[in-house]
Amino acid sequence: MKCVSFCMTVFLLWGTAGWSQCDSPKYEKQIAKYRKAEHQKFRDPRQSPLRENYRAYDHLDYFPVDRKYCVEARLELTPDSPEFEMTTSSGQKKQYKKWAIARFELDGQEYALSLYTSLALANIPKYKDYLFLPFKDFTNGNETYGGGRYIEMHIPEGNTLVIDFNKAFNPYCAYSATGWNCPVPPEENHLQTFIHAGVKDWGH
Prior knowledge:
Mean pLDDT: 87
Radius of gyration: 19 Å
């Protein structure tokens, strides 16, 4: 009986090794729920970056959900990286620090993106584990916003992290020309590939 119990435990541990949210059978539903919440936020005048005459639009335009764009990345922490100023769309600067380099594979190719922490948010309790990932790719200026897109994440416990490009969103500058200081993705985060995932450009 002990052997059966032990063997079953080993089987369960082996079967869940490498398991991530990307593998969940409910993944598509989770993305649909995320997008519905974004839709509600954009229609709420207290949160929306849209001008009033645009808030009645049914939804934002997204690429179809594609699991291949939900990737598990290996982390190389960069605790000795200096603080630096990231340029924004208005020409102002915001203070960030590189937290890690995330290395991942997509379509058989290796890529790397830097993850940042915001010095302005570092002392706010609810943002203590906040990670900021701004990036550009070959879709910018055509299918997606020319200024790049963002992904928000949280500091993980281990040495891997899931990057879900299906949750990539536009900076608020994509919806309003004034009133926002949106960080411009640093050159080190310019991906030399097409990311057909996440939100598309705002065409209004």
